[in-house]
UniProtKB/TrEMBL annotation:
CDD domains: SGNH_hydrolase_like_2. GO terms for molecular function: phosphatidylcholine lysophospholipase activity. Coiled coil: none annotated. GO terms for biological process: lipid metabolic process. Pfam families: Lipase_GDSL_2. Residues 7-184 form the SGNH hydrolase-type esterase domain. InterPro entries: Ester_Hydrolysis_Enzymes (IPR051532), Lipase_GDSL_AS (IPR008265), SGNH_hydro (IPR013830), SGNH_hydro_sf (IPR036514). This is SGNH hydrolase-type esterase domain-containing protein.
Amino acid sequence: MTTRLVFVGDSITDAGRDRADATSLGGGYVAQIAADLAGADVVNVGISGDRAVDLERRWQTDVAPTSPDVLTIYIGVNDTWRRFDRDEETTAEAFEATVRRLLDTDVVRGARLIFVEPFLLPIDEAQKGWLDDLDGKRAVVARLAEELRAGLVPLHAILTEAAGTDPASLAPDGVHPSARGARLIADAWLEVYRGA
């Protein structure tokens, strides 16, 4: 039986996919995972710009019908970013409440769950100021993964270590991964997927 892997999240998951084509995987980590797991049925329902509340608005139309065997949720960096570029704050508490509502649905109860921790590789002093806000979202993701005994991809630490003194090599704007960054995300996800 073919395993259906569904990935939901923001632009890092979306990665330029053609939303008019249900088979389009974009050009990021999801496509790399699909190439590595020949025979898996991979579905990408990421949408660029999504915050947790945006994901909640489309959960029943975009995610529930996919009937995943394995559901990967990768959300959080835009909940931080919008605070600093649009003055639209999402507290860690509000973020957690929204994600918990998503988790209390049939689509999640029937699937193996993998969380991907949001990351940020600050490329300037201004972005360094985002880290405290993102830390709250990262803590929520880690706590929910532990509580649900779900997989957790500890991406922030992995990419921070890999970037060393050159964060732009993995994420030119601090958020969106380069090809090498996407490869590292795919490898980190595969390690969690295969290790369970």
